[in-house]
Design goal:
Molybdopterin biosynthesis moea protein, domain 2; ribonucleoprotein; alpha+beta; 3 domains; Alpha-Beta Plaits; 3-stranded antiparallel β-sheet
Length: 322
Amino acid sequence: MVVKHSKAEKKIAYDQKLCKLLDEYSQILIVGADNVGSNQLQNIRRGLRAESVILMGKNTMMKRSIRVHAENTGNKNFLSLIPLLVGNVGLIFTKGDLKEISEEVSKYKVGAPARVGLIAPDDVVVPPGNTGLDPSQTSFFQVLNIPTKINKGTVEIITAVELIKKGDKVGSSESALLSKLGVRPFSYGLIVQAVYENGSVFSPEVLDLTEDDLAVKFLVGLSMATSLSLEISYPALSAAPHMLINGYKNALAIAVETEYSFPQADEVKEYLKDPSKFAAAVSAAPAPAPGDGGAAAANEEKKPEPVEEEEEDEDLGLSLFD
């Protein structure tokens, strides 16, 4: 004999289950469940059963349970879930990796026909080619302005046509044509709309970020903070090296133009007084490492002058008129 519970008992049981899940799990995926059937939902439950729990229910009941539980426990982080409970949504409580769970959920999608009045989630394009329909069906194509021709007793579409645009309502003619062509253009499943983790709520796109993406974003933010600090002369840690170098440059410029000096400027002043020291410093620089072409150049520079040139110099030095 099956015992039937009253609505009040069902609400109490649901409230207890939701509160227990809130206490046990710190990670929640808020998923949209439009056009998801019961069989499809059962398959998703079985696929995630190892480390996740799916909870569906009325938004008003979930909001009330969350609000009361937050007041009873003093944990106000749960309240950030309430604004997310809009439309046909459910909660996936998990202790696993959020990215892996999100990818697993996206696997359970099934094809669906274009029903009349449905808002198209994607563009629908009818490709060119033979449709297999007899010539009596050309009226459907004419109504939708799809160019066709009769080829071997069947209707053939000449060029690809965008039949339905994303966000448009599916009309009766579009629905009938796609049905005749056997096309199921849409696919439905649970769609992750938001992610809750320890009181923080963020977009599911964050789950797709890699460590390299985070490093790039961090460097961009650091560069902007450094630029702002330099512009307003605020000594931030990232801007300190640049400020020190700029200060040194300014002090060096003053020392060069005036009699004021300091140890670091003395060497620069000495080089400016005797530019030949620059050449000496360059010649004293270490030779390039072998293998980079520098060694060959150095060897060429060290080659003695040709014998012929030396003999010419000797001849010039011994004139007959001496």
